[in-house]
Every structure is written in C-alpha cells, then in structure tokens.
Amino acid sequence: MKLTFRSFTAVKEPETCERYLEGHVQVLKDYGITNITTNNRQWMELPNVHGIVAETESGEVVGGVRVHIADGIHPLPVEKAVGSMDPNVATIINQYFDSGTGELCGLWNAKSVAGVGISILLVRAGIAIVNQIRLASLFTICADYTLPMVRKVGFVVEDSLGKGGEFVYPNDNYIARVLRKMNAKTLETAEEFDRERIFDLRDNPIQLTLETGPKGDVEIDYQLLIPKYE
C-alpha cells in the first residue's frame, strides 16, 4: 500500500477540507458518534488551522489530523468539548499562550485502512509540522483506547482537570482525557523511537519512507511542508 501524507492550510483549500470532513463524519457515524463538537465546519474558516490528509494513489482521503493554533479569539476544540465541564481547561491553555500553543485534533482514518497503523503516523506528522507554525507546546484530547498511542509521542495526562484528567465525552460510553505536550520543540516526554521519527520528519518534511505497521509495510510519501500559497 502506498499513501501520500500532505499538509494544507484550511482556509486555502476548501475542497481538501470538505473531503477531510466527509471522511471524518463517516467514521464517527460508523462508531455511532454523532455529537462531536469538533465535527462542525467552523474550523474550515479559521486562518490558524493546518491539517494533514492521507491520500491513496487514486486521490481518496482515507485519514487526517489537524493542528489548531490558539489565537486568543476562537476557543480550541478541547475547550469547546469539555470546557463547560471544567473551566480550568481554558486557564491552563492560557498559561502556554504567549510562547505559542495549540491543539492536535480531528484524528481519523477510514475503515478501508483500519489496522494498517496510519493513526500513529498521522499523529507524528502532525507534531512534526508545529515547528513551521512556531508552537512551543501542544494539547490534545483522546479516548481511552488511543491513550497509549498519544503517550508514546509525548503527551502527558493533565490530571488536574476533570476527575483525575478524565471526562465523560463524547457520550456516556466513552471516557476522554485531556493531555498536554509540555514541549513541542524538545519532545522530551516522547519515547525515543517516536521522538527520532518526529525530528526526522521535521528535518526532512519531504521524504518517501517505508513505515512498518501491524499489517506489514506501508509506503508513505510525506509532503509535510505547509504550502506557501499565492
């Protein structure tokens, strides 16, 4: 299997946004989740949103992830999701605002590539591009089943929020956790292999790499330089 991971800026590529959203909504429906707050369209119109799409050779979008830069005007998706349950979410994000912070969110992959292992690859790629948008730290919110994956790349549970870091979200069947990545530059809390891969993607944002996944090797054509649009 060969996929291209391509970065984009939301406001500059409405068509890419539509294809991303369509795939994401479908996956959520497949799992019976229909009330995700980040699943709206507002992010498409925010100049501070960058994303990465996973595309097949035929151009089908089969996965994606986004990075939202905190701009002090629009709440980050995590604030919208669980901020009403704990007002300290906004307070903590604010502490990191001056040095540049944001959120990794909207991660999904289509059922057609389930089990291939592209989620961790998208997460690494999402963290890799934050040096291009000058973020010093990063937050995320994740479900229990993705906790081991996001911890590998260096996110730390923010246990001062919710009940020991836990929130009932997006519905009663799920527990979500808010995590912070203390240092998006040094990645000091990431596992060594993940840290090295992220640094390599930062240094070489355009590369063709054979990645080993649970179902064998996947060829990824990384195109992670955020385009300079006319």
How far is the N terminus from the C terminus? 33 Å
At CATH level 2, the architecture is 3-Layer(aba) Sandwich
Structural class computed from helices and strand pairing: alpha+beta
H and E order? EHEEHHEHEHEEEHEE
**Rg on CA atoms, Å:** 16 Å
Name the poorly predicted regions: none
Give the biggest sheet.
Answer: 10 strands, mixed
Coarse shape: globular
Q: What's the helical proportion of residues?
A: 25-40%
* Beta-strand content bin: 25-35%
What is the CATH class name? Answer: Alpha Beta
What keywords describe this structure?
alpha+beta, 230 residues, Aminopeptidase, 10-stranded mixed beta sheet, 10 strands, 6 helices
Describe this structure in words.
The mean pLDDT is about 90. The chain is of the alpha+beta class and about 230 residues long. The termini are far apart. Helix 4 (about 120-130) crosses helix 6. Strands 1, 2, 3, 4, 5, 6, 7, 8, 9 and 10 form a 10-stranded mixed sheet that branches. A hairpin with a 6-residue loop joins strand 7 (about 165-170) and strand 8. It has one domain: 3-Layer(aba) Sandwich (Aminopeptidase), CATH 3.40.630. It has 6 helices and 10 strands, in the order βαββααβαβαβββαββ.
